[in-house]
Amino acid sequence: MSEFPVHPVPASFSDAHIDKARYQAMYQRSIAEPDAFWGEMAEEHLSWDALWHTVRAFDFSNGEAAWFSGGILNASVNCIDRHLPARADQTAFIWEGDDPNDSAHISYAQLKTEVCKLANALRSRGVKKGDRVCIYMPMVPEAAYAMLACARIGAIHSVVFGGFSPEALKDRILDSDCQTVITADEGVRGGKPIPLKANTDKALAACPGVHTCLVVKRTGGQIDWHSGRDQWYHELTGVAAGDCEPEPMDAEDPLFILYTSGSTGKPKGVLHTTGGYLLQATMTFKYTFDYRNNEVFWCTADVGWVTGHTYIVYGPLSNGATSLMFEGVPTYPDAGRCWEVVDKHQVATFYTAPTAIRALHAVGDEPVTRSSRASLRLLGSVGEPINPEAWEWYYRVVGDSRCPIVDTWWQTETGGQMITPLPGATDLKPGSATLPFFGVELALLNEDGSEIEGPGAGYLVIKSSWPSQIRTVYGDHQRLIDTYFSHYDGYYFTGDGATRDEDGYYWITGRVDDVLNVSGHRMGTAEVESALVLHDDIAEAAVVGYPHDIKGQGIYAYVTPMAGVTPSDSLRDELVQLCVAEIGPIAKPDVIQWAPGLPKTRSGKIMRRILRKIAENELENLGDTSTLADPGVVQDLIDNRSS
Ligand code: 6R9
């Protein structure tokens, strides 16, 4: 699979939680006796007010799954209260601001008070169990308090990434009928303000159901105020009590909704429930990162993505760990920022995305090597396939050839890691996510749905339920069935392709559907196309991904102007701005090619396969073009390819 050598488990991990023999034994038991295995795991890793009556029940024909039903627990108690006897003074969060001179430590005792105050403040505004609360925040501790305060009172949080536009925010608020929004006056990233409250105001103009907008004062910047609806966070929490009775939650009561892109239509509200999600978060954090007491763990994701949910907030806190939350960007004030932060806070584990690794690699070694990084013990990667060259640089330069790299494959829908090395148990192959986590039964399928035995390449599917399985698409269970459970009967369809080598290691090759992965951010080609065709001068648009050195995938848009419209640079700029306004800056097309016509079948279907080849500049190998309605279109696109 790769010419790069295998990296065996280093001696420094010989005392890891899980070694090779233990991995084998636990994995086999998790498959052979799942009820016994998971029951024991749930008792060992979580704190319950009442135990369940049924460990697991699932039916892949209708996408239903229930774990630990009847069990009663509260996620905020598991993340905070249960640690207080031993860890009241231990740091729960280290906050590192955008400005290198700004940082703060929040202890578990302080976390409890902050979360309870906010929980009481929310209750004072009428928020109760089952209500949806939208969180549109910068990377400040209040974002985590907000998630945990919702969990404390049984409200369902829906975090919307702070980089999304007002339009995208509005769609998400309306889809899950959120009546409360928590935001900040402004965010700060790379020295620049981000107008979160102004964006929220725009979104809320079309959301009459929102009765409360809580505003964290982050910068003190000028904002508009809608009296009655808008409330200062510090004023409401300032008068609230620092103790709050947690809501008893059934393991299957919802914990959160998180929107993610699919190949068709608008983003889906992925719903996760309390017990199973928290167990997967807790166990994967402990075992994948081989977490040891008092270590500092840093996941660079934003809390607006699932990686931030599971590995900044729920996984670390459920283990009583110290989690670092970073407000800024890896290149501000310069490309050495991450390693400065590692030294400043003595970070032991650093978990980031391949796009960041490639961007930092491109700048050269010096910003890394001028730091010590002696505190680092383990490195991690998530979000997209990591190319072996980037892996080797990360290993050799960042980790000084001492730190294993855990390349973790998972999805918003899986809630927690699914394919991952365990650093004390798994020999590493650069570019491979390696082996399944406990209880994860994988298969590779051929096009016709038959299972591939042994080494081979195919569609990656999952054969049985896991605790943090997506429970539904909020408000549209049929969409869950159509998207994940109807491609191949009896399997969960991941949307990814993979190969399996002779050692049973998995190598994820990327999405096989119309989902782009741009810098680790998921986006449906349909979403970008819908934004482009909103322009009055545009008749049609087709969007594909193409290989991009830093982003992994770039956005390549073929755009057909209306008859009589002459394409121009200003039209191009307007289209880019339209994508930013409809979705956010992450959706800016990298390339816009004017296309007088798009390649279509005689039945009118756009042949994306051909568009992808042209974008990738693989012109010799366009495949079968015999079904094209007008073959001349393709030659025109090739002749006018944007390079
Ligand atoms: C956690 C997260 C999920 C999609 C997934 C796959 C890609 C994630 C990966 C990876 C190769 C890895 N992906 N981790 N591909 N190797 N280690 O990223 O969730 O935003 O829902 O994206 O990301 O294509 O299907 P999400």
From TrEMBL:
Q: Which CDD domains match?
A: ACS (cd05966)
Report the residue ranges that make up the AMP-binding enzyme C-terminal domain in this protein. 527-605
Please give the residue positions where the record annotates the modification N6-acetyllysine. Answer: K605
**GO CC, one annotated term:** cytosol
Give the UniProt keywords, A-Z. Answer: Acetylation, ATP-binding, Ligase, Magnesium, Metal-binding, Nucleotide-binding
Q: Does the keyword Nucleotide-binding apply?
A: yes
Q: Which residues bind CoA?
A: R189, G190, G191, K192, T307, S519
Q: Which residues form the Acetyl-coenzyme A synthetase N-terminal domain?
A: 23-79
In its record, the post-translational modification comment is: Acetylated. Deacetylation by the SIR2-homolog deacetylase activates the enzyme.
Q: A single GO molecular function, which one?
A: ATP binding
Q: Where does Mg(2+) bind?
A: V533, H535, I538
**AMP-dependent synthetase/ligase domain: residues covered:** 84-465
Q: What is its EC number?
A: 6.2.1.1
Instruction: Give the binding site residues for ATP.
Output: G383, E384, P385, D407, T408, W409, W410, Q411, T412, D496, R511, R522
Give the required cofactors: Mg(2+)
Into which family does the record put it?
Answer: Belongs to the ATP-dependent AMP-binding enzyme family.
Q: What does this protein do?
A: Catalyzes the conversion of acetate into acetyl-CoA (AcCoA), an essential intermediate at the junction of anabolic and catabolic pathways. AcsA undergoes a two-step reaction. In the first half reaction, AcsA combines acetate with ATP to form acetyl-adenylate (AcAMP) intermediate. In the second half reaction, it can then transfer the acetyl group from AcAMP to the sulfhydryl group of CoA, forming the product AcCoA.
Q: Could you identify this protein by its name?
A: Acetyl-coenzyme A synthetase
List the source organism. Parahalioglobus pacificus
